[in-house]
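Record minuted for completeness.

…
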Amino acid sequence: MTSSVSSNLRVLVVGSEGMLARDLLARVRQSGLQVEGLDLPELDITNPGQVRSSLKSSSPGVVINCAAYTAVDKAESERDAAFSVNRDGPANLADACKSFEIPLIHISTDYIFDGSARSPYQEDAPPNPLGIYGKSKWEGEEEIRRRLDEHIIVRTAWLFGAHGRNFPRTILDLAREREELRVIADQHGCPTWTGDLADALTTMATEAILRKNDRIWGTYHFCGSGRTTWHGFAEAIIRNAMKREVLKARRVVPITTDEYPTPASRPAWSVLDCRKVGKVFGIVPPDWEAGLAKMMDELYSKNQVFRSTGSGST
């Protein structure tokens, strides 16, 4: 593949109707780059011919893949669908990108780890996904690594944003209806605002287009700075919302994972080490609570605090 500087300043965002992608499209436009978004039915990443045709037609300087099967529990009974989107789809994108000499940025997840660690996971930590979702995402990473040298894989965690269905919007819905919420307190992670991740991806996309440094290719972690539990996250959401409206909720009761069984197991420790992205790209992840405040500002300013609907996050 060529290492020459690309003159094509167009970014193609795949899975453009998703929670992250919608913020990403706005950030890329603001940066001055050209951007195009494609989603179903125009682009189905499980269809190799359609992928190749779309990339040939768009001719971008970089592709960012935000498309994913994200129904973690449903994946346990829909294994084929999860692997088709999360493994085979990235493989198709990597093949097409290699043919047209286009770098690929791909979004992955903390769920490739089993959560048995007690220090933040570095990028080279051994994977051991607990469920079908995590396994399918890990195999998608591996397909990209095997097929395309000029790639950037970005693992993130506990993603939330103003668009679609996610944890803060679910907590807001419940806090308006119930006096008491019961939320898991023994799973630890780093909530990540889509706006912050979109900013990071825009920086990476610019570097990938210019290709000034071959050291940028590889795997990175990006999540909100600081860690909490789902219980702590819920308390922060309610505190923030009560500055803006009256909620019925009076108590957030901590519970264990065993008290809230789900079809898919979740890692008890999803804290990611994000130092590498700072060393290579100069990106410092902002505090997750600052991201939450910005997300809530957006929800209330646009009167979007209705019952949450839409697709899940990566």
